[in-house]
Amino acid sequence: MSPGQRSLLFREVNDRIYDLLESGEPDLPGEFLCECGRECGRRVELLPAEFASLRGAGEPVRSAECEGPRLLAPALG
Ligand SMILES: [Zn+2]
Q1: Burial class (CB in 10 A: 0-12, 13-18, 19+), 36
Q2: CA of residue 22 to ligand 1 center, whole Å
Q3: Is residue 28 part of a domain?
Q4: For the chain (length 77 residues), average pLDDT per consecutive 10?
Q5: Distance from residue 70's CA to the centre of ligand 1 (Å)
Q6: What's the pLDDT at 14?
Q7: Is position 41 within any domain?
Q8: How far is the CA of 54 from the centre of ligand 1 (A)?
Q9: Distance 25 CA to ligand 1 centre (A)
């Protein structure tokens, strides 16, 4: 699976997690998958509202460890 495909899949999974949280416990944070596209296996704890605002801004969910300029390196393809 390419990094791009993996991030797309993880985005879909996160959307499902969000739907579940939103309809169940909207005031509690949930664990979303890091959408960096690598096999980092990290989870990102976000409130449903925080996730919604990331989506609204077109920002991917990224763990703190996966944030940063190195992600923009062309080698990641
Ligand atoms: Zn990551």
Answers
A1: buried
A2: 23
A3: yes
A4: 89 96 95 92 96 95 81 48
A5: 12
A6: 97
A7: yes
A8: 16
A9: 25
* Cα 13 to middle of ligand 1, angstroms: 15
pLDDT score of 62: 93
Q: How many domains does the chain have?
A: 1
Is residue 60 in a domain?
yes
- Domain residues for 53? 3-65
Q: What is the pTM of this model?
A: 0.82
Give residue for tokens 């005031």: 27
pLDDT at residue 11 in the model = 95
| Residue 30 CA to ligand 1 centre (angstroms) | 16
33: in domain: yes
